Amino acid sequence: MFILHLDVMTTDKNTHRVTLSNLSKSATTTKKNARSIHFALKGSHKWSVWAIDMAVALRERTPSPFECLKGVQMCAGMMVRGLYTSDVKFSLETLPRDMSMSQALEPGLFDLLWFPKEPEDVGELFGRRPKNTNNSKNTKMPSIKKKLGEQPPKKNRAAPKDVNPSPVVPKNVESPTKQGASPLRELQNVFPDTPNSLTNSHRQHSEVDEKTVEPQMSVFRVCGFTGEYTNMMVWIPGSDNIAFAASSVVVIITGDGSVQRQLFGHSAPICAICVDGSGGILATGQEGQEAIIRIWDLETKECMAMLKGHASGLISMDLSLDGEHLVAVGLDAQHRQSIITWNIKDIRKGEGDALMEIQQTSDFNIKHIKWSAFDDDKLLSCGRDSIRIYRVKENQLRGMSIKLGSPEKRVRKIPGGGSASIGNQIFTCMAFEVVSNPLQKERHVYVGSASGAVFQINYEQRRLDCIYQLHNGAINCMSISEGFCAMGSDDDFLRVWPLDFSDYFLEAKNEASVTSMGLSPDGLKIAVGTESGAIGALDIATHCHSTLLRSHTDTINCVAISPKGSPEICTASMDGSVRVWSIPTCSQQCQFAADGEKAFTVAYHPHGAVLAAGFNKGKIRVFDVAGTMLIQECVQHRGDVRWVEFSTTGDRLFSMGSDGNLCMYDTTHDYRPIKYTAVSEPSPHVCMAISSDSKWLAVTAHKNATPRASILIFHAEGLDPCLKIETLTDAFSRLAFTPDSRQLWGIDVKSPSIIRFDVESGGNLGALTNIHSEGCGAMEIDPSLKYVWTGGGDGVVKMWDYSSEIADSSPFGEPQSFTGHPDIITDIKLLGDYVISVGYGNAIIVWKVDIGYPHSMALAIPKDRAENLPKTPAPTLALAQMHDQREPSPNNVPEMGARSAASHPKLPAAVSRRLECDSILGVSGEVPDSVVWDADTGFFAYSADNIVVVEHLQSRKQTFLSNHSQQVCGLALAPGGSLLASGSQGVEASRSADIYIWDTASRRRVAVLEYHPCSVQALAFSPDACWLVSLGAAPERSVVIWDVVSGEAIAVGRTREHLTAVAWCPASDRPEFVTVGGEGALIWTLESTHLCQRSMVLPVEAIEAGCCCVCCDSLGRILIGDGRGTVWSLSITTGGGSLSHKAIELEAAVMSIFVCGARLAVGTADGTLGLYRGSANDSWLLENIVKLNGGVTSLSFDACIREGVVGTDGGVIWYVNVDEKSKSALVSGHPCKVRSMSAAAHDPDVLATTSEDGVLRIWSVDKGTVTMEVKSSQKCTSVCFSLCGEICAAGYNDGTLRLFDVEKAAVRWTLLRHSSSVVGLGVDAEGKKLLSMSADGVVYITEIATGKLLGQNDGFQGGSPPLSSISMSRNGNVCAGAWPHKLVVFNVPWSDAQFSSKAICKKFDPTTQDGGASSAFSSSEPHIVLYTNATLDGRILFFDTRTSRVKRSVHLPTGFVSSLAVSMNGVWLAAGSQGGAVFMVEYSSGEWRELPGHRRPVNAIQFSHCNTSLMSGGGNFLMVWNVRDM
What is the pTM of this model? Predict the structure, then answer.
């Protein structure tokens, strides 16, 4: 058993490990991890020669060529004779004497094994491999002192001259011949053929010769700063340059930030940086298991040496002032902290290697270490409870600790009058006093601590002189000049102090903790680095601050390119921010931050100036870049939003989430969602791409039933499914269309490889395999289709030549590789002459591309694009409807227009814009505080499910505030009526119950307040409209105070029990309000720093009854209503106590109270509205009582309580005039779900409805009120008007028929006709006869004038399930009955009343028992009956009664069509869905448009007889759509 480790170095100074071992079971496997290569082989009893072709072995791991052998480790039992390196290829016969085996034995007795295989591009013995220009100069590894075996002649050290990463030297590889592809399968389910002959591997290096190619990319600029580490910045002495770390890159910029250079070579983020006293050399160290330190020549920008002494945990290092010694602190293999010093004098001279002089473990914790500025042979360190001085002598460190005094000692010389104790301390940084006089006796060292104190140490006496408490947070960095001391702290302040620390004379507040700083050589400028990734320069003389650089603080997920003509990009990061940058300077233009969230994707609107970004929690935010403001926020997904894309026309926005759902938004109408489709099971590997012509949209789909991923291609205009491609790939990390939109490319996550598909057929066009060694997540295609860029998990950017003219072989050439990122690359974009790459870490790398692009190529705007974005109109009714996009089941029914079964044609945009909601009939009366009214301005609003309806009381015109996705739980109107607040239930995906603030004048949303996770219980504005208080519904029990102007939560309080209501105290001189709930009454006061709570004494009976509502008047009285009908009056005493007594006693629970001056209005649960006047002894006298139709839930009156509006849970809003003692209905609605409806033929504004409460209502649609309401002990189930409109017939659940005279509002007759519930009614053309059909299938014909029975048919009776609905032809001579499993069509014998036994019956799935069915007659084709049921999955069948066959069908993207209607002119078909969507379908073509609005099933839908409007009933509400212009 043996293991042989070979540590080799490449020309970029990186170390890689090659391992040979027989511990693996297989002798042919090759294992690769991040930085090692493992060759497995079997052991042998013979002597063997193992030969490794390092050039080929390392090519899989790094683009940099092999340079030298660095170290060897041998483990376990084996005998090794020697180890050598050579540029010459030998065989067993040609081995030189020092390497050959015994000359007395035959060579066949020995083994010669080549790894990975024997090279064929060099000759035997004297045939040398052609050298790469990048490998022509070999560099010895400075840290290796002993050589194994015979050494080659010694060469002078030479570092690589190129600072920028060098590409892999590409080679020409002959592409394999492409075999014939298999025939394609059906269009909707193409299974691609992926023969091995179509796979191009660009790793076949051994078959051809290498050729040198000049690199076509170079690093132009790096934007990033590692601000999470301290002391990561130095101002280089003697220059105007600042050096700092950006992830794994060393960046050097001028003091004004105009010029930048980069130093590459580290393989992990840099954690330490230092410079010598002359500014000649720079040392940088990286984090992780390979704690490598690089020494850089700042004049040539070359890496002089690479040192490794620590196993991990490098924390601090420093160069001596003369630059001849380096000290570093890290962890050894046993995780002990150790100090290592190197002598690097010979490296600077170019004459030798670095010598490790001292390696010593430390028993004292070290956070920071520095060479002494006073003595060359001394070191100082500081850490936890430790400040030590070391002396370097005879390659040993001898140290002593500074005596800090006893823990009880206190030092009083501290500015501000405070004191600091000497106790447990964590010392973080240090700086030396600048001594200009060499004869100065006392010299000092200043040490900063985590407590914000500075400890002054006497260097000669080795003792503590003084402590200065200077900051309120940890001091992270210090710099001292001759006249002052500058320091940065976690309290975000940079302060400049005199050396006596009497008081600072300069203070700068930063946006985050100050972690690094550098002092210019002249002492007039300070470079400041913060934890947020920003670098600034402070001019001490002028106090002017300039920002040199800003950066993200976490992984950057996405880059978007601005199309507006300026070199501008936008990035989205895991730090929750979306930032806009100017390229190539990488100056940040603006930033949109969402603290505590994560931004995954971002996209520019094609007209520029607008961004759409996807966040976690399912949120999409749209930003105005020019105005730096939030335009819109949508929450349509249940998981992270991974992709957003605009169409090239800009009128559509698409989003794809990890929940597997795809959503389309209308950008011209407040980005309202217009289509929502489930395309995949939840997966983190979801991808989306849109073609350059906006014709195609591609997404990936994953199903739990199969491990393979599929690709779905849609028509982007309406998300109509076009093609499904089944693949052999587990997941894709990226999709992209080629610029000509003919091909779709996908990156296989597992391989990784680029797989190309034909967009039209779905056929596999071939694959480029093994494009990166550790996965690939980024791809960018050149607009001219000549180059392709990829970014991998290995941190390498590759640039590929691509030839679209090659048809029978792979079109990819050999790539050039460029290193710069330390880890995974997440995105790459091309912008003119520049390539922008981002990934793990916070750095943005801008590459200069030398391929002859004009700068305007990627920045030009097509002529057909508008110059400006369309103006966003006032909010209109636009709500997201969520439904599943299911796979179509096989069916023999032909589709309209010979489309595929999954294709859903969309209505043209010109027609869709004319479909508007005119009005909503209904109100959420069961919701407390669902109605608001301002007497002075006349503003009137109420909630209808998730919509806030603003209605003008004179014109009755409605405006809809429709951004809520869940039911609105309450409204609050600010004093003066300028602002309206609406709270909602929590969205299940994000668990956030948002509160929206609306400007009542413009009807626009001005703020979104997020805190409550479940639901908002109550809202109330303060009397001055500066504050808003919100209560969280159970089980949350929180009280939140919001600043209305800023939209921020100012204070939060919580209670032990649930809360029900809140009211502000107008008499208080402080922000004060009262809440009531399970704990009784609590009074809250907003103090300067917190929210103060105190209890108010209430009788036990009030608490047991439950406090329901509260109100406060201007005199300081607090009125509380309880669940037993008592109104309690409380007053606050001067001592802060409270007195209470019964003010009013009623018979039902008090639900709402309104008080103003000496008048009081009280609403109860039984519908009683009591109006009271106050008396002298604090009692209330009853003036009037108004009985309403349900429990009072909302009260809004004028200041004198003379008139007001009252909302009830019966679904009605009443106008009450106290002086006239009158009431009238302002808004009417249904208290429960709508079941059916019938439009009157004589008047388009007359409509009859039935609902689950059994009440028949006849509406005046234009007024929005009920003109007639009929209640009965039985429930009304169906209704029908006569053609003249004077007669209305109703059927009931007990089989009763009733005939009403509409004009007289009287019942003409009542008959118990059926034995089961009446399902449908119909009237003949003359209005003399009535047809009724019950659930058991029995049909009766009744004479309207007398109620006489004229005929009946029992032929359809029996069986299960029962009848769902009926429909009548336009002339009334044919009737269709719709069952869930069959459709029956029969002639109606109006003349002789003798039913024929003949009927047409079309049966469907006989097992169908659940769900309903709907039917409707065609107006243009009288022989066509439309039918649908729950199992047809969104299909509407066109049944031809002449042939008894289904002629055609329309497939809508919904699970269950619950209602149908055809316009009287036969042009349009309307369908209501179980998911709440209403679809407007063109009858002839089948093209459709979704009308979002309802959130609950649409059980009834009806056109007006004059084709001017469409009425739909979903849940408790009716929506009236204007179709007049269609």
Answer: 0.50
